[in-house]
Amino acid sequence: MCNNSQLMNVRLSCMTAATATPGSIAPAISLTEKALKHLNRMRSEKNEDLCLRIGVKQGGCSGMSYTMEFESRGSANPDDSVIEYEGFTIVCDPKSLLFMFGMELDYSDALIGGGFNFQNPNATKTCGCGKSFATSKEMQSTATACNN
């Protein structure tokens, strides 16, 4: 388990710039150019000042599932990590960030297998649908059938 100084380091690294420069810390969650472009398009269609909440929840065919939804910028909790990308904001709760630290979110418009793609370095097992993952053998025991 993390002590408070480790949690503070995670929080501080989340607040850095979207791209790492020499001598800087890489962002906790990064977006590819395609993902950023698609998310900005989706947000502009809603015509509101929104941010993307990204997280994980128990369930899915590998034990944990990714969650993503737009929400009002004012809805962020005080302990959420806030990551800014060229005017685009991602918020993530501390518990989810432990499972997603270092993850890259990509997007593909391919007819087969298109959509958002999660490249999570913490995942030890992923489902063929790409929307669920496990990080250890203990979590694999909660797996259920994949419906995707």
Radius of gyration: 15 Å
| Level-1 CATH class name | Mainly Beta
- Name given to the CATH homologous superfamily: HesB-like domain
Poorly predicted regions: 1-22, 137-146
Spatial gap, N to C terminus: 33 Å
Write the element-wise H/E pattern from the N-terminal end onward: HEHEEEEHEEEEH
> What does the average pLDDT come to?
75
Give helix % range. Answer: 10-25%
User: What is the CATH architecture annotation?
Assistant: Sandwich
Structural class: alpha+beta
Strand line-up across the major sheet? 4-5-2-3-9-8
Percent strand: 25-35%
Query: How many distinct folded domains?
Result: 1
General form:
globular
- Summed up, the helix count is 4
CATH topology: the name is: Hypothetical Protein Aq_1857, Chain: A
- Describe the main β-sheet briefly: 6 strands, mixed
**SS elements, strand count:** 9
Domain Core: 29-131
Protein name: Core domain-containing protein
GO molecular function: iron-sulfur cluster binding; protein-macromolecule adaptor activity
Organism: Triticum turgidum subsp. durum (Durum wheat)
